Amino acid sequence: MALKKIEPLLTKHVEQLKSQGISKGKEKAVTGKQAAKDGFSERYFLQGYEDRAFLRMNSNSYLGFTDHPKIIEAETKAAEQFGTGPGAVRFISGTYQPHIELEKRLAEFHHREACMIMSSAYATVMGVLPQFINEHTLVISDALNHNCIINAIRLSGTGKKTIYPHLDLQVLNTTLESNIGKVNRVCVVTDGIFSMRGDHAPLHELKAICSRHEEHYEEGVILIVDDSHGVGALGKSGRGTEELTNAKADILIATLGKAFGVNGGYIVSNKAVIDYLKETAPLYIYSNPITPAEAAATLQALNIIDSAEGKKLLSNLRNLTAKLRSGLVKQGFETIEGEHPIVPILIRDTHKTSALVEHLFTNNVLITGLNYPVVPKGEEEIRLQVAANHTDKDIDYILSILTKF
Fold it and tell me: What are the start and end residues of each CATH 3.40.640.10 domain in the chain?
C-alpha cells in the first residue's frame, strides 16, 4: 500500500524522460541467431521481429569472441568443474583457481605487477576511484568521460573537483599549475577510448604533463585511465590505448565484457596499489566475483589474442574499420578520424539522427543513435561499431543502405 503514494511520482519522472527524448524505452530482446553464410556474418533475431534477420553494428564484442568455440568450451568445462557461481565473496570462500590465474595473466598482459578482477568495469571504477580521493585531493576529469567516472567522483564526496574541456591539455596543464600548494594529491582521470566518439586520449602527452608537475605535490599526480573500449580492440597486439600511444597509466582499469567477450572488470597497477584496494574497496570486498567459468573463458580469450589467430583478427578489425570510415567519407558523411572500431556519423540534427536510426532499422541494421540532450545540441550522431567477425560484404551492405538515406 505504501507504494501508492510514490508511484505517481515515479511515473511522472519516466514520462519526463520520454518527453525529453532520453528514455531508454523498451528493450529489444535477442531471441536467436542465424549462422554466417554467403559471405555475410551472423544475423540476429529480435522479439517481435522474428521474420527479420538483423546485422548487429552496435555490439562491444569487437573480436567476435562471444561466439568463439574455444572460449565457449573453456567456460563450459570450468562450469562443470567449479559450478555455476562462486557462492561467496572473495575473502570468504569465493576465490577459485581460475580467478588467481586470470589476475596473474592480466597483470602480465599489461606489464604490471598485480591485478584485481571485479564484477564489471563500472563497479571497478566506482570501487577504485573513491579510495584515492580525500579532502586533500584534486580530481581532474575530461569533459567527455564515461558516466562511471562521473558517478565515482560524486561518490567520493570529499576533495576538490574540476573538469577540463575534451582533450584540452593546455587547460589541464594550467589547472595543475594553479593548484600547487593547495592540495597534497592530484588524480587525473580519463577514458582511454571515449565511447561516444571512438577518439582516444593522448596518454603520452597526459603522462608527460603529470610527470612535469609531480614534484610539486606531496602525494604525487596519479594518472588513472579507464580503457574499457580500447583493450583488446586497439593496438597491433590488442593492448589498447597504452599501446597506441606508447605510454602507461599509473592505474589502468578495463573490462572483460567487450573485446574479451565475457563479463567482469579489472584493475592493474603496482602490487602496493592492488594490496590496498583489496583491503579497502567495498565493491570488491562485499560483492561476489565473476564466476570461475567466466574467468576460465577470459583466460582462453587472452591466449587467442596473443596467438597468430589473434593478430589476424586484430588486422581484420583494423581493415574493416578503415573501409567503413573511408566509405562514409566518400559518401559525404562527417565522421571522426581514428583507428578504433567505434565509427560515429555526426548528423548534428535530432530529427535527422532519429530518421537515420529508423532507416537503418527498417533495413535490418542495429545501431545506436545519440540525440540531444544525451549529447549537446549540434553533436547528434549515430554510432557504428565494427567487429572482427564482420565481413567486407557486411560493410558494403551498410554503406549501400546509407546511400539511400
Answer: 70-305
pLDDT (tens digit per residue) in 28-72: 899 999 999 999 999 999 999 989 999 999 999 999 999 999 999
Query: Cα–Cα distance between 282 and 279 in angstroms, integer?
Result: 8
List the grid coordinates of 88: 561467496
- Could you tell me the CA-to-CA distances from 120 to 221, 251, 258, 348 in Å, in that order? 26, 16, 11, 32
- Residues 322-351 have a mean pLDDT of 95
Determine contact, residues 190/206, Cβ cutoff 8 Å.
Answer: yes
- Is residue 388 over pLDDT 80? yes
Burial of 179 (0-12, 13-18, 19+ CB in 10 A): middle
Say yes or no to pLDDT of 1 above 70.
no
pLDDT digits (tens, 9 = 90+) for 63-110: 999 999 999 999 999 999 999 999 999 999 999 999 999 999 999 999
C-alpha cell at 380: 547528434
Q: Cis bond leading into 292, ω under 30°? A: no
Which grid coordinates belong to 78?
570450468
- 215, three cell numbers: 614534484
Q: Among 12-16, 88-92, 175-179, 332-336, which is the least confidently predicted range? A: 12-16
**Is CATH 3.40.50.720 the classification given to domain 25-56+308-403?**
no
Alpha-carbon distance of 225 to 249, in angstroms, equals: 6
* Contacts by 269-273, CB closer than 8 A, 24 or more apart: 269/112, 269/113, 269/114, 270/112, 270/113, 270/114, 271/113, 271/114, 273/114
Asked whether the CA dihedral 57, 62, 29, 11 is positive or negative, the reply is negative
pLDDT higher than threshold 80 for residue 24: no
Q: What b/e readout covers 359-377, taking b as 16+ CB neighbours within 10 angstroms?
A: ebbebbbbbbbbbbeebee
Q: Does domain 70-305 have CATH number 3.40.640.10?
A: yes
For CATH 3.90.1150.10, the residue range(s) in the chain are 25-56+308-403
Beta strands 221-226 and 185-191 are parallel
Q: Write out the H or E segment, with its range, that includes residue 72.
A: helix 69-82
Rounded (5°) CA angle 151-155-156? 120
Give this prediction's pTM. Answer: 0.94
